[in-house]
Design goal:
Largest sheet: none
Number of strands: 0
Shape: elongated
Number of helices: 2
Helix content: over 70%
Number of domains: 1
Length: 57
């Protein structure tokens, strides 16, 4: 579960960095990377939810 949390943190950092570049510098490639990170975050957060529910039983 700790590895999952670390992966989530990495993706959040990647999203934040790339989203800032897209908004601040109008960097279109950074926007694509931010969208990719958001999709990966979605998967990781669903996995976290599933693991968290299992751990609480």
């Amino acid at each position: 579960m700790q590895e999952l949390v670390n992966n989530i943190k990495e993706q959040i950092n990647a999203f934040e960095t790339n989203a800032d570049l897209q908004v601040g510098a109008n960097n279109k490639a950074a926007g694509a990377r931010a969208r990719k990170a958001s999709l990966e975050l979605e998967k990781l957060l669903k996995a976290f939810r599933k693991a968290s529910i299992e751990a609480s039983k």
